[in-house]
Amino acid sequence: MTIVQPYVPQYRVALFELVSAGLRRHGHELSIVTGTPDGTQASRADGAMMSEQRSSTREHSYRLGARHIRSVTTRADLRDADALVVELAAGSLDTLRALLPPHRAPVAVWGHVGDYVVPGSRIGRAAKQWQVRTADHVFAYTESGAAQAVAWGARSDAVSTLNNTVDLTALSTAVTEVRAVAASVVRRELEAPDRPTFAFIGGVDSVKRVDILAEALQLLHDQGEQVHVLVAGEGNEDHLLAPAVHRGQVTMLGRADDDCKARMARISLALLNPGRVGLIAPESFVLGLPIITTTGARHAPEWDYLEIGVDSDMVAGNGAAFAAAVRRLVREPERTARMQHAALAKAGMPSLTAMADTFVQGVVTMLDTRPSTSPH
Predict the structure, then answer these.
(1) Residue 8 and residue 55: Cα distance in Å, rounded?
(2) pTM above 0.85, yes or no
(3) Local structure of 295: helix, strand or coil
(4) Alpha carbon separation from 286 to 51, 326, 335, 371 (Å, rounded)
(5) Which H/E stretch holds residue 160?
(6) Residue 229's beta-bridge partner residues?
(7) Mean pLDDT of all residues in the chain?
(8) Does 118 share its domain with 68?
(9) Which domain holds residue 79?
(10) Which pLDDT belongs to residue 375?
């Protein structure tokens, strides 16, 4: 069975290892065909190499207007696979080629399904609808994506909800270990003053709406509200936070590992995330921190895991509303504690093991119910 990916990001390694082991138990071997990360993917510097992975010998990537068109497979890659899992993406030539004759092995598509993080064009949406209807199986990241696939014409029995997540084992261990460390010690280590503290984890860029955070911090400073934000991440909008750093409101920590995230959570009231919410959602549960975000952001499918008013909060997409939400967390400690406990109660959800099991079962079912037309 072959998975076709633009590249393998580090956070996908644990999933693919579990999928590989699961497929072997059913008598199948996993192969991953990848290209080389470029553009935004390359800037993340998170590419990984697995034993099941082989780099493409025929990679193409170019722009067609605003759309990024890419291909990494050869004819042999498609011809020799007994089954394929490809991107559910309008710009993937690999998906188009996999779903068309002459070498038509069983094909599954996987991805968001709906237009979550970027506005979809009419042509792009039509391409994805065709992919969903033509594929033998659809792996949707969340339940809302699965419902969209069925609405687009996929058979309900050929749609699986993966409940997309990452390996949170190391983060969970780090959180448990740091609970034994005094908060005062953690503050010294992170150079955080003794005042109400919040965490920001992710890219310091427009996707995360750093401009809203910067505006909110300016307003809080003007109002005499003493708060501090620990920022773990890098990006091209870090200059927007420079005034807050100068005022002593922000400590920039750079990219954070699991131990750093756990220490941030040890002294923080909540996660400030005015922009896109994605895989930070399941991380927030392990950290025991409610997420505060805004209505104007284009959230990823993992947004589905949050319950607004229970383990998270959503306000208007401007600095004044965001500052008010921060102030409320400081001034209503009982409410904040309830939200923290609600988030922590979901720690480990969704499960990466369950995600991998769903992936494997979907592939096996696809192979069992649709005979391959591949000669191999």
Answers:
(1) 10
(2) yes
(3) coil
(4) 30, 21, 19, 42
(5) strand 159-161
(6) 198, 250
(7) 92
(8) yes
(9) 2-165+351-369
(10) 42
Provide the token pair at 338.
């309830």
**DSSP SS3 for 337:** helix
Handedness of CA 11, 16, 19, 24 (dihedral sign): negative
Find out whether 312 and 293 touch, Cβ atoms under 8 Å: yes
* Residues 19-59: tens digit of each pLDDT: 999 999 999 999 999 887 665 555 555 677 888 877 755 56
CA distance 124 to 254: 36
Give the type of residue at 93. L
Dist CA 100 CA 153 (whole Å): 18
Q: Are residues 251 and 153 in the same domain?
A: no
Is the Cβ–Cβ distance between 290 and 271 less than 8 Å?
yes
pLDDT tens figures, 317-350: 999 999 999 999 999 999 999 999 999 999 999 9
Contact between residue 359 and residue 139 where contact means Cβ atoms under 8 Å apart:
yes
Intervals of the chain under pLDDT 50? 372-376
At 121, which CATH number? 3.40.50.2000
User: What are the CA-CA distances from residue 136 to residues 90, 139, 149, 311, 369 (Å)?
Assistant: 17, 10, 12, 37, 9
